[in-house]
């Protein structure tokens, strides 16, 4: 009989047990440190603080909220604010991305170059800096009255935000964040769309043109559906990035979930619980986006007949 | 003749149909109005004194002026090494130096850190004084260097046949990739001290680097995994036929090929990390973005937002764009996807 240490399965089990042992030992040591440190600071673990009064104001509340409401209500408001800006961002970034991506392949030299300049500037500077620029250098320096900056008399852009007809108004913070996320992510999406369209063989263009389609129709009916197969997976990761980047709201004072959670931490000192809440929220948002994009991916994938 | 060619080109590229003509006209009108406005702003309205007065703050922060020679030396070392590398890659220098190059870079790393930080015979400079572009570059480079081995290990772990190792790796990668970076930096700044024993204190810069490293490693692991998956099964079988054991097979056969295939992705990730260092300003570090905000907080530079953010944006842009150009060049040179 061969000795047991010649057996691959034996070593597989030993290595894995060792890994588990090390992981458990590290986790235990960290836990001991944590409880030591918390005890010294006089903080207890537990989520009961969620029911105590938040006593801070939130500048934007999609649902009714006042400072006397508990922390869980404040966090709900933050979550709704996050979802709002993520959904706006995803829709507008997709529109900008598709437009610029197609413009990058235009047969008009000027349009092509302008799209390239847009992509290279936006992709190669930090989003945070862009947000600061839009917020402090553009939005807050706009005139108060709307007369000078109205677009066709419908959309008014002022330092109090963007005002649509029928009294719909977006705060400067929401507008900045949505604009910043849209333009930044749009530049990345444009490159994805461009690569997707380029991946469709030239013969497809020629065949569709031979059938007498105009180039707009060729793009919509023949090229785009095929390009989508290559576009959807990287597009998913851009949407996920956008959702995560929405947490930069804290830099310009838009009360998203991260901002509210951070205020909660500053008031209660509950670092562990607040971090857990943030983790669970973003992981859930990421999972939902991935799930929906996977469904889309299944629809656009090549169906063999 | 040339005139005719220009005309032909213009007609073909700008006015080949009625809607392209319309687009061209609209674009030209937009360009002219935007450019005249910008030029007017740059020369008439903007007050660039804020940049002139604070140039050294933007670049190196509060690093002591009498020790600037150390930073110049660092710059000289990095520039000369880059020049030699470039010469080798473009085959202007014999590839005999190929083996020395990685060693030289690896050796320069601690030397550079020693020159910046001091200690061991040099006057030490506290990390609080490393600000501005200097801190941005230092944090980005250290984080990517540290996250590299971690990322490769995680990628190998994720490919492993061992159930526990595989799932630990997946858990780590997916949790980190599901979180916003600012959450991880918060974790590193606020929670790391809670998880460490009381006598063990990391300074702010190190905590920032720890956060960036943990974050970057998860993304790097996914990039490397892409490379590992591109290696044909035959390579594994051939390595086993040569009686190599698993670690040797990975180290000598699989990883060199896998990493070579993902060089562009790695450069892209470094560019991303370089931009992401700006988030350190939210957790209170004075890197390039952070120092801009503290300059803007001074009363005499109130409302100089556009000047400062455009200048800082230009600095970021120059570095990122240069890196992406270099990456494209490298990609061609290595002939990735062609071999």
Descriptive report:
The complex is a heterodimer of chains A (305) and B (339). With 305 residues, chain A is mainly alpha-helical. Chain A has one domain (48-300): Orthogonal Bundle (MetI-like fold), CATH 1.10.3720.10. Chain A is built from ten helices and four strands. Chain A has helices at 8-41, 71-103, 109-123, 127-138, 172-199, 202-210, 215-245, 249-252, 257-268, 271-300, and strands spanning 150-151, 155-158, 161-163, 169-170. A four-stranded antiparallel sheet of chain A has the order 1-2-3-4. In chain A, strand 3 (161-163) and strand 4 form a beta hairpin. In chain A, helix 9 (257-268) runs antiparallel to helix 10 (271-300). Chain A starts with 7 loop residues before the first helix and ends in a 5-residue tail after the last helix. The model of chain A has no long low-confidence stretch (mean pLDDT 87). The longest helix of chain B has 30 residues, at 305-334. Chain B has 14 helices and no strands. Chain B is 75% helix and 0% strand. Chain B is globular. Chain B folds into two domains: 64-125; 130-339, Orthogonal Bundle (MetI-like fold), CATH 1.10.3720. The relative contact order of chain B is 0.09. By secondary structure, chain B is mainly α.
């Amino acid at each position: 009989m061969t000795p047991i240490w010649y057996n691959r399965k034996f070593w597989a089990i030993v290595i894995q047990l060792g890994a588990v042992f090390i992981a458990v030992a590290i986790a235990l040591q960290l836990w001991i440190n944590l409880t030591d440190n918390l005890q010294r600071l006089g903080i207890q673990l537990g989520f009961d603080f969620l029911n105590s009064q938040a006593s801070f104001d939130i500048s934007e509340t999609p649902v009714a909220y006042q400072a006397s409401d508990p922390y869980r209500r404040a966090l709900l408001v933050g979550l709704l604010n996050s979802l709002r800006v993520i959904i706006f961002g995803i829709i507008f970034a997709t529109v900008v991305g598709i437009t610029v991506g197609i413009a990058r392949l235009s047969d008009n030299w000027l349009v092509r170059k302008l799209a390239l300049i847009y992509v290279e500037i936006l992709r190669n500077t930090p989003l945070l800096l862009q947000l600061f620029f839009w917020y402090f250098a553009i939005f807050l320096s706009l005139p108060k009255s709307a007369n000078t900056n109205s677009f066709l008399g419908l959309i008014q852009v002022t330092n109090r935000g963007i005002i649509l007809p029928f009294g719909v108004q977006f705060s400067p913070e929401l507008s900045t964040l949505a604009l910043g996320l849209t333009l930044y992510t749009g530049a990345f999406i444009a490159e994805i769309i461009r690569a997707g369209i380029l991946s469709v063989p030239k013969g497809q263009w020629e065949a569709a043109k031979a059938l007498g389609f105009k180039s707009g129709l060729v793009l919509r009916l023949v090229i785009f559906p095929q390009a989508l197969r290559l576009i959807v997976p990287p597009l998913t990761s851009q949407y996920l990035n956008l959702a995560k980047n929405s947490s930069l709201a804290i830099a310009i004072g838009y009360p998203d979930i991260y901002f509210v959670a951070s205020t909660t931490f500053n008031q209660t000192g509950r670092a562990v619980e607040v971090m857990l809440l943030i983790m669970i929220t973003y992981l859930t948002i990421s999972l939902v986006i991935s799930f929906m994009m996977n469904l889309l991916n299944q629809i656009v994938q090549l169906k063999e007949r | 003749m040339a005139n005719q060619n220009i005309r032909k080109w213009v007609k073909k590229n700008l006015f080949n149909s009625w809607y392209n003509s319309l687009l061209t006209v609209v674009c030209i009108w937009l360009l002219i109005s935007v450019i005249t406005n910008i030029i007017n702003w740059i020369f008439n309205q903007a007050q660039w004194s804020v940049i002139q007065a604070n140039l050294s703050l933007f670049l190196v922060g509060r690093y002591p002026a009498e020790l600037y020679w150390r930073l110049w030396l660092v710059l000289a070392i990095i520039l000369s090494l880059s020049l030699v590398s470039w010469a080798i890659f473009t085959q202007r220098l014999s590839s005999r130096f190929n083996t020395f190059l990685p060693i030289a870079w690896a050796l320069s790393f601690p030397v550079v850190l020693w020159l910046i930080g001091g200690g061991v015979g040099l006057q030490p400079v506290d990390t609080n004084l490393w600000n501005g572009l200097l801190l941005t570059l230092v944090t980005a480079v250290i984080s990517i260097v540290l996250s590299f081995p971690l990322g490769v290990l995680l990628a190998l772990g994720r490919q492993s046949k061992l159930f526990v190792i595989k799932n630990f790796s997946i858990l780590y990668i997916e949790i980190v990739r599901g979180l916003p970076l600012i959450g991880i930096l918060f974790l590193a700044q606020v929670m790391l001290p809670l998880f460490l024993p009381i006598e063990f204190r990391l300074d702010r810069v190190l905590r920032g680097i720890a956060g960036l490293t943990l974050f970057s490693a998860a993304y790097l692991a996914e990039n490397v995994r892409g490379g590992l998956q591109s290696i044909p099964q035959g390579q594994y079988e051939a390595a086993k036929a040569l009686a190599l054991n698993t670690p040797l097979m990975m180290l000598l056969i699989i990883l060199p090929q896998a990493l070579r295939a993902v060089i562009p992705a790695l450069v892209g990730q470094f560019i991303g990390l370089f931009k992401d260092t700006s988030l350190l300003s939210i957790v209170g570090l004075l890197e390039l973005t952070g120092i801009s905000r503290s300059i803007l907080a001074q009363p005499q530079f109130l409302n100089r937002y556009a000047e400062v953010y455009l200048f800082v944006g230009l600095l970021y842009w120059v570095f990122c764009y240069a890196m992406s150009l270099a990456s494209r060049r490298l990609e061609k040179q290595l002939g990735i996807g062609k071999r």
